[in-house]
Write a structure and sequence with these properties.
single chain; alpha/beta; three-stranded parallel sheet; about 35% helix; globular
Amino acid sequence: MGGILVRQIQATDPISKLGRVVMLSPPNQGSEVVDRIGDWRIFKSINGPAGQQLGTAEDSFVNQLGPVPFDCGIITGDRSINWINSGMIPGPDDGKVSVARARVAGMSAFKVVHATHPMIMKKKSVIKNTLRYLNSGSFDDP
């Protein structure tokens, strides 16, 4: 949810020299999993109040943040080890967020890798692409 926090900070008390940001599998447009099981007691106890704000409704917290006003690249996954969650999400997903809902208006670059939500940050190609984007503003080789 770090990417969502950056969006909120930039919307309310912007960091003037933020620089480039890479988000990893962010629920920028919410997650259908929250829509389906967000009211369950166990979901609430694990994810807390912040998890409740990640639904896909137009008036959900994440969908009220608007376009990103900063240089932003997004890397998301298309592999899931959670077939229950994936059954709630249409299209390719990482077990928590659909590839389509990771996108956000204003982003500068988008990349899909074969990774799961909980492990995407440990994938060598993701680390390499993150560093490349932070240095060059692109996920592509120069």
